[in-house]
Amino acid sequence: MYLEGFHEKNIFEGSCPFRVFVNSSYEFEYPPHWHNAIELIYAMKNGYQVNVNGVNIFMDESDILIIAGGDIHGFTADKTGNDGKIVFIQFNVPSLDCLNHIKNLIWALACTRVISRKNNKFVHDEIEQLILKIVAEHKRKDTAYEMAINARIFDILVVLVRNFLESADTDGIKETDSIRKNRKRITSLEKINKVFQYIEENYQENITLHDVSKAVGFSKYYISRLFNNIAEKSFSAYLNSFRIKKAEKLIMNSSFTITEIAHSVGFNSTGTFYRVFRQIKGCSPSEYRKMLV
Question: Collapsing DSSP states into helix, strand and coil, what is residue 32?
Fold first, then answer.
């Protein structure tokens, strides 16, 4: 599993169409990312905060969050120091779909939603019990546990479809505006990922929006629009933020001077590096290094 820009790739091991992860560290955090898989998050103990498409979602204990494929989401560490337990279940619908029918249903559920005891107790309790069975199977890893988890994910899909699908005519579901928007969003994410990849490979050079446009084959206007709509920041702001993240790692893990670090991450001027670093981190690079000692 790795991030390429915002795109999280290789999240499944081998041919397994799902991933189960239980986290109990209050310091756990993960940067904004997206994937085609549907993600289910269950706050097993204490609450949790997730940012989806720029909106903070505060989960109470036992809340269930369904994140649609293509939605950009990230996780923030609990600053209070409270211990907790969060269950993450990711699954790839096309790989699960041996009947070649689920995909027509699940696109109709292409929206992120919180399911809690307060807003839908019956659905919440049904899905919660299935999640707990998945966690138990994953922990024990008895013979055929993958099949058991697969079956419980199917059960969750059935609960979601039966309770949130607006049309009862499941064989003739029409593509709604929300479905079209979701497809368009994923297409845009796949396009902007080419830009992220170019930045990853060339951030140390003096690259411009014109250079990126020429390299990936999109107009400067189109790339700017993608950044504003998806990354919610300009191209130059994203590039600066990316370079500062690389600089942070060098400050923490190397003995390079601040000037050497500035040039190694693509800043031609040490003064500009200091200004951008302070703007993003709230302190100078030198002050940041002293705080780490």
Answer: strand
Q: Is the pTM value of this prediction over 0.85?
A: no
At 44, phi and psi to the nearest 5?
-70, -40
Instruction: Give me the domains of the chain, ranges plus CATH numbers.
Output: 2-164 (2.60.120.280), 191-292 (1.10.10.60)
Q: Is 221 exposed, middle or buried (CB count within 10 Å of its CB: 0-12, 13-18, 19+)?
A: exposed
Q: Which pLDDT tens digit goes with each residue over 60-93? A: 999 999 998 878 888 876 655 567 789 999 987 7
CB atoms within 10 A of CB 48: 25
pLDDT tens for 18-47 read 899 998 866 677 777 878 788 999 999 888
User: What is the per-residue burial (b if ≥16 Cβ within 10 Å, else e) of 54-66?
Assistant: eeebebeebbbbb
Q: State the Cα–Cα distance between residues 47 and 42, nearest whole angstrom.
A: 9
Q: Tell which phi-psi region holds residue 53, choosing left (phi > 0), alpha (psi between -120 and 50) or beta.
A: left
**137 CB burial (10 A radius; 0-12, 13-18, 19+):** buried
